[in-house]
Amino acid sequence: MEKQKSPYKWGMVVDLDRCTGCSACVVACQAENNVAICGKKEISEGRNMHWLRIERFWVGEYPNVRARFLPVLCQHCHDAPCEPVCPVYASYHNPDGLNGQVYNRCVGTRYCGNNCPYAVRVFNFYSHQWPSPLDNQLSPDITVRPRGVMEKCSFCIQRIRRAKENAEGEKRLVRDGEIQPACAQTCPAEALTFGNLADPLSRVARLARSPRRFRLLEHLGTHPSVIYLKGGGREHV
Amino acid sequence: MDLLGIFKDAESAANAVDGLVKAGLDEARITSLTSAPYPDGVIVNTDQRSWFRWFTLVCGIVGSGVGFLLAAGTAWVYPVQTGDKPIIAFYPTGIVTYELTMLFFLAGTMVGMFLEMRLPPVGKRPYDPAIGDGCVGISVSLPTEDWKLLAVKTMEEAGALRITSEATL
Amino acid sequence: MSEPGIPDVKSAGQLNDEMLSSIRTPTWKWYGLALFLGAVVAWGLAAFSYQMCTDMSCTGLDRPVMWGFYIVNFVFWIGLSHSGTIVSAILRLCQANWRRPILRAAETMTVFTVAVGGLFPLIHLGRNWVFFYLIPYPNQRGLWPNFRSALLWDATAIFTYIIGSSLFLYQGMLPDLAVARDRAIGWRRKLYNLLAMGWRGTAREWVTFQKASTLMAALIIPVAVSVHSIVAWDFAVTVVPAWHSTIFPPYFVIGAIQSGVAAVITLMIIIRKAFHLEEYLTPVHFDNMGKLQLVIALLWSYAYFVEVQTTWYAHEPIEWEVYSFMAHKYTFLLLTMLFCNSVLPIIGLCIKRVRRCVPAMLAITVLINVAMFIERFLIIVPSLSHKNMPFVWGTYHPSWVELSVTAGAFAGFALMYTLFAKTFPMVAVTDVREHESQRRLVPLGRTRLPSLVGKE
Predict the structure, then answer these.
(1) For chain C, which residues make up each domain, given as ranges?
(2) Is the per-residue pLDDT at A183 higher than 60?
(3) Helix/strand/coil (H, E, C) string of A24-67?
(4) Which residue of A187, B8, B92, B99 has the smallest Cβ count within 10 Å?
(5) Residue B32 in 3-state DSSP?
(6) Would you state the pLDDT for residue A237?
(7) Residues B94-123 pLDDT 10s
C-alpha cells in the first residue's frame, strides 16, 4: 500500500518576534470556522472552544517583566499521536499533510484529545447555540458541529479546498499566497505565514529555513507542520 | 434396550457391575450415572480418550484466520492513513488475531464438548432424580431381550433400590 | 462418634440441601434488597439518560482531563473481573482442593463485572447513539473501524472475555444444574432442564467434562491477562506523561488480580453469611485466600515502588511533574491508597489469626478495593491534568452524574449477582460432593486422620 502523493505539504510559520499577543487571529478563527461562542462560565470550567490560543508567559521579576506570547494551533503533525488512536477513523492524515477531522464520524471517545501533546483539540461538551441574529454570521462553507464531537484547527480547509478547486479548474497548482487561513489573513504584524512547504520557493518554506526555527515538543517526534521562529535576544531576560 | 438400576451407594453399584461382567456382559455396555464424579475404575472403566480437543484446535485455527481478516483485511479494504503508521500494522493485527483465536478456542471447546457428549439428546434416555441426591445409577444396554431377566436378577442381588427401563430424560 | 475437629460425614442429600439452600423461594428480605438495588440502578440510568439527552457538560470533564470517572470505572470493573479467572482457573489447574466452595462465586463475579465494565466505553462516548460505528460490520458506507486504535483492541478483548467467561461459568455449572433440575418444580425445573442439556452424569460425560473443564481453565487465563494488558495499553501507547510506561501492562494485570482476589474474599464473606454456608466456607479457605492476597499485595507494592522510583531517579521534568502534582493535590487519596493497598494487607495478612478472622478479612479486602479504585483515579486524572503544555493544565472533579452512574454500576452488579444467587447454585455442589466422597478417616499411629482417596 503506497502512501498517496500530493504536490502540497501545507505548513505554517509563526514568527514569535512579530507576535504582539493581540489575539486578532483567535477572533478571526472563531468567526471563519463557526467556532462556538463561550462565556465566562464555560471558560472557567476549562471548556473553551478556541481552535487557536495565545499562550502568555510572564518572564522576569518586576520591574523587568516581559510577556512572551506563543500562538498554539493544531500542529498538523506528520506522525500525529491523535490519528491512530481514533477508533472510527474520524482523525486521519490527509495526503496534503493535514490532520483531518471528520465531524460526522466522531463518536466522542476523546482519546485523540487526550493523546494530543499540544492539547489543541477541543471537545463540544456543551450543545452550543447561536441565538438569532448571531446565526447570520455562520459560514456556509463549514458545518456547525453538534455536541459530543471533537474539533480543532483545520488550516481553514474550506479555503484550501476552494483554492484547489479554482486551481484545478484553471489546470495549474495553487500559487503561493493564494490560500490564507483566517488567522494568517488577519494578523496585523504578519506573524503567521501559511503555504506549501513542499515548494522550496514559497514564502513559508524560505522562512522555515531560518536559523531561528524550532518546533514545539520536538522530543516527542510528532514532526509538526507548524514551525516557530524564536523571538529576538531581548526575550531572554 | 436400556435398563437402569438405582443403587444406594457406590459399593453396591460396584458389586452390581462386577456381577454383570461375571455374567458375561461386555463392560462397554455398562455405564454409571452419578451426580458427582468418581475416579475411573471405581464403578466402571472408561476409555479415557476424547476427540473434542481436535475440534477445539480446528476452531482456534479458523479463529486466527477470522482475526487476521478482521484486523488486516478490513484495513486493506479501507486504507486510511493515520499517524506515520503502516496501513496494516504488525502489533494491532497480532493482538486482534490472538483475541479472536482465543475466542474461537473457547467456543470450540464448548461446542466440541457437547458434540462429544452427544448433548442435547435427540430422544429420551433412562434417568432417575434420585441420582441427583447421591444414588448411583447403573445403565446397561442389553444386546437382546433374553439378557433382561439375568441383568435384573444380578442387580437385585447387588441391592438395587429399583430397576426401570423407562426413558424419562 | 466423630473426632474433635473432624466434621461428621454428611449424606449427599444433606449436602445438596445445604448447598442449594440459596435457591429456595426468596424471603421479603431478598425482595427488599433487590428493590433497593433496583432503585439505585434506576437512579444511575436516570443520570445517564440526563447526560445523553442534554450534553456532556453535566460531567466534570474538561480540557485537558477528557477522561474521568467513567474510565476509572471501566478499568476498575475490568480489573475486578480477573477474580474468577485467577481464583477459579488457576486453582483448578493447580488442583487445589480448597477452591471448591469458592469457584462458582468467583466465576459469576467475573461475568458480571465484565458486563458492567463493558458498559462504560458506551457510557463515556460523546455521541453514544452512534456507538455502532465501532462495530466491524459490512455497511453501505464502506467504512470499517480502526484496528490500530487501542480502543478497538479493548472492544475485541472484552467481547472475547465476556463470551469466554460466560461459557466458563456455564460449563462449570452444568452438573450442578442437573442436580438442581432433579429437585426443582415449576418454572425452575423448566429452566434447569433447558440449561442442563440432558446431562445424566454418565462416566463418559464426566470424562469429557473434566477434560473440557481443564482446557477452558487453561484457555481463559491467557485471555484474562491479555484483556487487562490491552486496557493498560489504552494508556501506555499514548504520549501522555506518566502513562507512557512499559510497566503498565504487567502492573495493571497485578492490580487487577489484587482487586479481584479481594473482591472474591468479600463476596465469599457475604454469601457465607447470607446463605448460611459456614460449614463450606471455613477459616481454612480464608486462610488460603489470604495467603494469595498477601502475595499479590506484595507484587503490587513492588510494581508501584519500581514505577515511582524510576520516574524519580531519571527526573524527566514533565513525568516528575505529574507525580509531584499528584502528591500535592491528592495527598490524602494517595496516602489512603498506599496504606490500604500495601501496608495494611502486607502486615495484616502475615498473621494467621488475622487471615482466619472473617471480620478482619472483610475489612482488609473492602479497603483494598477502595484503594484500587483510588489507584485507577490517580493513574488517569493527574497525568491528564498536567500534560506537556503547562498553559492548559487543569483539574477534574466528578459531577453528580458521574457519581450516580458509578453508584448505579455498583448496584447493578450487586443486583445481577443477587438475582443470579437466587436462581442458580452459588456453591459448586458437585465439586464439593466429589471432594466429600473421596474423604476417608484413616487410622495412623495414635489418631485417625482425614485423607483423600483418588488418582494422583
Answers:
(1) 12-279+398-452
(2) yes
(3) HHHHHHHHHCCCCCCCHHHHHCCCCCCCCEEEEEEECCCCCCEE
(4) B8
(5) strand
(6) 43
(7) 999 999 999 999 999 999 999 999 999 998
Q: What are the chain C neighbours of A106 within 8 Å (beta carbons)?
A: 126-127
Q: Structure pTM?
A: 0.94
* A125·C145 Cβ contact <8 A: no
Return d(Cα B20, Cα B147) in angstroms, integer.
10
Structural domain span for residue B58: 52-117
C126 and A CB contact within 8 Å: yes
pLDDT band at residue C2, thresholds of 50, 70 and 90?
Answer: very low
Given an 8 Å threshold on Cβ–Cβ distance, is A84 in contact with B80?
A: no
Q: CB distance from B27 to chain C under 8 Å?
A: no
**Does residue B80 lie within any of the structural domains?**
yes
String of DSSP letters for C39-101: HHHHHHHHHHHHHHHS-GGGSS--SS----HHHHHHHHHHHHTHHHIIIIIIHHHTT-GGGTT
Q: What separation in angstroms does the CA of A152 have from each of A22, A36, A120, A132, B149? A: 21, 12, 7, 25, 88
Q: Look at chain B and report how many structural domains it folds into.
A: 2
Which range among A64-73, A102-111, C8-17 shows the weakest confidence by mean pLDDT? C8-17
pLDDT surpassing 60 at residue B127: yes
Answer whether C155 touches A (CB < 8 Å). Answer: yes
Contact C197 B114 (CB under 8 A): yes
CB contact under 8 A, C182 and B10: no
Q: Which residues contact C74 (CB under 8 A, 6 or more apart)?
A: C117, C120, C121, C124, C231
Q: For each of the domains in chain A, give its residue range(s) and CATH number, in order of start.
A: 10-232 (3.30.70.20)
ipTM comes to 0.94
For chain B, give me the number of helices (H) and strands (E)?
A: 5, 4
Alpha-carbon span C407 to A61, nearest angstrom: 50
pLDDT at C437: 85
Domain assignment present for B139: yes
Q: Which chain A residues are Cβ-neighbours of B84 within 8 angstroms? A: 78-79, 223
In a domain, B43, yes or no: no
C236-292 pLDDT, tens digit per residue, is 999 999 999 999 999 999 999 999 999 999 999 998 898 888 888 889 889 999 999
